[in-house]
């Protein structure tokens, strides 16, 4: 029982971490109907920037407060992400208004390659660490009830809290502001959105900036967990079933999807895995998402797929 | 200037329905085939064959298969790597388990295995669409990764899960030189491309495109979405499966499941998008872009830097390669969002009206 | 036309799609302040393209103005973004509706107020649109994709009105609307024109209606303006009568009787 | 109404009701269509006309009611069955296959009639090629008939609206239907083009005896070419009869025509 | 043609770059050292070209095809298990030897079946064998392993699966319980793996990871409270990039050490003087002598010695063909004395290859991470001949049968 709870909690926490990456996908999809293949690359780029600046800034300025270094590095990394967003709009998206999803997807792939190359050129390809003082050791709860207690990881707990806060903030942003509506309009029809005076350029810069910051937060947390190196980009692949399950356009969906996927894959690996040789969680996550899709083809909270003549 | 179609009148529908209705195109095609089959084998180096041409031909074949599904039938698939893997391991099992199995039947049987697998994972397409479908196909991808690592039977009980083949022969001729391998793959590609072209310009091809463009309307004119989608999955995964078998048997010789990882799936999808969705020709352009360009960049950049007297480290080259490759993708899309094939046909269009600008 | 009251001056523009398809071959037209100008012509004549060139929605279609100039109150506008044009009061109602499929009718309308800041004004505009099109009010919460064709057309027009425009480029407003609503749409046009001094440039197939409400008309054929004049004069031109109004020499012909006989248009000779 | 004879009832719609959540798109609609006639459906926007067609060809499933076609009664058919029985249609919001050429669009209308299997098609061998050419000949006739020869090989997405409407009609005709459902075929056309379209419709009706169900907002066209008219308003039937009867019906004038006509 | 060409496959980008960079640097630096200090091998200068493949098998094969035709090409080090598998089929055709130090196919130790493969110093089977021996010693005898539970957390790829047959063999022998826990590559998500570890509470965990998987595993072990000093890694999990980022969290973690390391070794000192001292160092100075850097140096040293050996037979001061180098590889004899001369005496043990034995030495040690650096080296262990020979014989028999090969005879051994 205690073990079941641990697995459950572990799954929930992992799910929140996936959700953090998934959010980036959702944001950009929502705002432009683009499936942003570069999300993984953005996470890596942001994390690299953060990790390296946290090293460089104290060296340049000659102080050694860890907190200050992290703070400044975060700000500088966020600025870098703003610049990236602005350049992407200027050089890429602007020229691809009104093109099909496949074309835009491809363009984001180009961006992904570019960012991978650029990030490694500027920041190097080694393992770097982000130390934002996350506690690494587990705590044990309920040790009166269960023998050995129920183990929970504090780092995960913090990360999950940050993810939740971010989601709440973004949900508010989308629901309560006119911008949210404009974003959805843009996603539906670039040309019509232009025709009523929605400035695509500004909208896209805003959204890519927000997505950049989300990527930075994700990169920071994942980076602090895993170390900052190239494999961070593969985290995006783990977040994919989450986005799909939650619905490509839903911010809260990313969280719920994350929780379901997280729990589903951990329970499956732990309870089914050993009987079939293990290593099943990744495909299980996808199959789980698929099963949900068979009932709701647009994901749990996605906008209904329009099907009309 | 001599690229004109006027003056060439078609007197029968048969003539009008040819793959290349313009005479100049037909001649160009024959020349191209002659170059591919005669000239290149006479001059190409071993490196060119093994490192560029053979992979290019095989990937073109795979991209062709992907294009049928994604480009013609509009079903986004990220499971192509899995179909290739099933093709490869399917062929492998026939090859090692059936004594004296020749290569061609093994490849075709591998294709058939992939076809069955493709149909199975195509079933969700009846309900799930677009990017959401991509997830279903990714499920196929990760499942196959797992399956070939975990189920020993498929790898003939090799402890590490990696397998190899040797003594390939076609009609009794051993396939041991690079030229022979190239010609074999090329011949298969030409045959399959021809068949595929026939398919996409026949009734079934129209069904696929109809489903892609407007599925409700397609249903109203009597097209069964189920049949159309599943047949696209079947044909496409059959071709991809054969390509997978070739990749494993002819190109790699020895392989592990990672040879057909999700990256391969992504690459194949990119080939068809950058080459041109819904264009047989586009598959070849796309394959060339994705397979050849990075290699060319990799060798060209040090030379370029050398020209300016600068030294660049290998890491620097490969970072620059990534950036240039990414930038080129974006640039081509901006010039022509519908892919290289479209760019090609626009160019031909311009040539046709040359020297007038419009 | 009095040249200093011209708000919109299109001067010999040439438009090319996709770098190869030449569609407009030197189109010039003027729209006076507070006027209603009709742009008439058959399918593929280039009406939509002309409007897109003005509102600069052309780029999204991979089209490009390669020659000529477009001026709004003396200012060159070829390089302004559509959003900037909306800021300046120029809005286009696109052909084929283009409602935001996933948004409800009301949300669709509200997107039109993106450039407006004043809450009171927005509310008033919304109310105005609802009074013009009561049908929209009853369907306000439905997703636009699931409304009927006519409802979507109303939505598209209403959405444009929400931007508080001074010049509206209307592309086929009557398409798919019931006769009663067609009347109404043209009434609204007239109404806005007289009461709020909104200028209209409208591309229409319904020549009858268009000439009835417009002051001035241009007729396009294959990318050129072939004829222009006061609406009244045009309506009385014998070619226009025969080809666009259906009233040949012997009055209105029944659709049943037009058989294969066709007279060639004089200007195509 | 010269040489044609309208025959027996070929399509009988009985008590159809269709709801989408709270929206009642159709309430208890009944009407019939006779063989060889031109039957118009009119009504204000959102009255449920298009939905009615969608029910007939199996795109929507009505909650209540039945449809009888050539003596067979169905509460619901799938689109394929309807197509097989010889019902074709055009769409209000163009539903062409945008990426395909005009010829391919029309050829796709003939797909139901193609018998060669996938292998023969791949080889394009003997019978398959002959079959393809036979259908191509038929389609060319339609192309000539609709006067769209010049655009044969253009992808339809690039055609102007009016021509797309013609292609849409062509695709339906390619199915050699017995009943042709047309949803606002003349929207967005100028007079000349409407005349052409009317001519096409009437010729199909007269020469092939095709029964036509037509939704149209241009009253001139409706009055001139239809034999009988159904009027819908807010999902209810408010009138049914010969054109002139309908035109003079008080309810119809109030709900639909307005005063001007 | 007057230089001996050494192609260098490397990955300085991509997921495994953190390990790939020092490795590649070590390989280059040693070549530079030989050219700089000795003027080449008996006067034959060494030339090289690096080809970046980002750990992608197909790009690696492309590199191979590109470089294999260069004049004077000596040898290939595929640097990845995937590329090794692919090249194992090609090398016999092209007649180019493959050197895989500490990786590759375990059965390729059998030189009579694998003429062109040289898995020097150890394979995963020797590694796994030594780990078990070490555990036995810690417990005070292999018999104490009875009833113990050992979990293998492995990279789910041929690399990770290689040790399984040996461990199973050993498990049968000593009666311990072997639990297999695969981790999907690249291994960034291991929560469920470590939850399973927590559930089954094995006495030891063997970590068969590569790249990011290693640090993630250690972090996850910390997060689930599994004692790090019960975790034992393979030598690819015992380098600096594997633990640096975990720092104190990995304190007590042990891993196999295939080779010695550190800047005190003579060869490293010479590299510092002759290469870095002249501003020609490939990477940063402080990485010289790191675990995986040193492994790169060893690989190159073995290559150079093979060339030297070949020259003894085929002509001093001449550029050797790849076939001749192969003979050199097969007839290496690096005695204690020779190693001392070369400056490798505390880096590796003496090594002698034969036509039958392409590995030359099956010795390794175990070292410990103290939270800041590797150290606490154990004594050398040698893999158990008896078990290995049995497994290798069985494996290579199947291989020979499958490929319809002839085992090499005495005459062939002379060639
Ligand atoms: N995006 C495009 N790409 C290529 N050609 C186009 C594009 N849009 C329009 N055209 C071509 O430009 C010509 C003019 O089209 P336009 O839509 O402006 O005509 P229109 O007068 O508005 O016709 P309609 O009355 O049918 O709307 C047509 O021949 C059409 O094929
Ligand atoms: N799939 C659907 N989901 C929800 N509501 C629908 C759907 N289809 C139609 N409706 C609603 O049913 C009503 C009738 O729609 P329909 O399209 O049949 O109207 P119509 O008579 O064709 O009007 P128009 O002349 O404007 O085309 C409309 O109010 C529409 O919003
Ligand atoms: Mg138009
Ligand atoms: Mg309708």
TrEMBL record, chain A:
Any GO BP annotation: amino acid transport
Molecular function terms, GO-annotated: transmembrane transporter activity
Topology relative to the membrane: Multi-pass membrane protein
A cellular-component GO term for this protein: plasma membrane
Keyword presence, Repeat: no
Transmembrane feature ranges: 12-29, 41-61, 67-88, 95-115, 157-174, 203-222, 242-264, 276-295
Keywords, in A-Z order: Amino-acid transport, Cell membrane, Membrane, Transmembrane, Transmembrane helix, Transport
CDD domains, per the entry: TM_PBP1_LivH_like (cd06582)
InterPro entries assigned to the protein according to its UniProt record, in alphabetical order: ABC_transp_permease (IPR001851), BCAA_transport_permease (IPR052157)
Subcellular location: Cell membrane
Recorded family membership: Belongs to the binding-protein-dependent transport system permease family. LivHM subfamily.
PANTHER family from the UniProt entry: ABC TRANSPORTER PERMEASE PROTEIN (PTHR11795:SF451), BRANCHED-CHAIN AMINO ACID TRANSPORT SYSTEM PERMEASE PROTEIN LIVH (PTHR11795)
Protein name according to UniProt: Branched-chain amino acid ABC transporter permease
Organism of this sequence: Corticibacter populi
Lineage: Bacteria, Pseudomonadati, Pseudomonadota, Betaproteobacteria, Burkholderiales
UniProtKB/TrEMBL annotation, chain B:
Originating species: Corticibacter populi
Cellular localisation: Cell membrane
GO MF entries: branched-chain amino acid transmembrane transporter activity
Keywords, ordered alphabetically: Cell membrane, Membrane, Transmembrane, Transmembrane helix
Transmembrane spans: 27-45, 51-70, 77-96, 102-123, 130-149, 180-200, 230-250, 270-293, 323-344
Keyword Transmembrane: yes
Protein's UniProt name: Branched-chain amino acid ABC transporter permease
Principal cellular location given in the protein's record: membrane
Coiled coil regions in record: none
Membrane topology: Multi-pass membrane protein
GO CC terms, sorted: plasma membrane
UniProt entry tagged with the keyword Magnesium: no
Record InterPro entries: ABC_transp_permease (IPR001851), LivM-like (IPR043428)
CDD domains: TM_PBP1_LivM_like
UniProtKB/TrEMBL annotation, chain C:
GO terms of molecular function: ATP binding; ATP hydrolysis activity; branched-chain amino acid transmembrane transporter activity
Example GO biological process: L-amino acid transport
Family: Belongs to the ABC transporter superfamily.
Keyword hit for Ribosomal protein: no
Transmembrane helix found in the keyword field: no
Pfam families found in the cross-reference section: ABC_tran
Keywords from the UniProt entry: Amino-acid transport, ATP-binding, Cell membrane, Membrane, Nucleotide-binding, Transport
Protein name (database record): ABC transporter ATP-binding protein
Record-annotated ABC transporter domain positions: 8-247
Domain of life: Bacteria
Alphabetized InterPro entries for the sequence: AAA+_ATPase, ABC_transporter-like_ATP-bd, BCAA_Transport_ATP-bd_LivF, P-loop_NTPase
Native source organism of the sequence: Corticibacter populi
From TrEMBL, chain D:
Keywords: ATP-binding, Cell membrane, Membrane, Nucleotide-binding, Transport
Top-level taxon in the UniProt lineage: Bacteria
An annotated GO cellular component: plasma membrane
Residue ranges constituting the ABC transporter domain according to the UniProt record: 11-259
InterPro entries with a match to the protein in the record: AAA+_ATPase, ABC_AA/LPS_Transport, ABC_transporter-like_ATP-bd, BCA_ABC_TP_C, P-loop_NTPase
Residues annotated as signal peptide: none
SUPFAM superfamilies, A to Z: P-loop containing nucleoside triphosphate hydrolases
Alphabetical list of Pfam families matching this protein: ABC_tran, BCA_ABC_TP_C
Gene Ontology molecular function terms on file: ATP binding; ATP hydrolysis activity
Protein name: ABC transporter ATP-binding protein
Species assigned in the record: Corticibacter populi
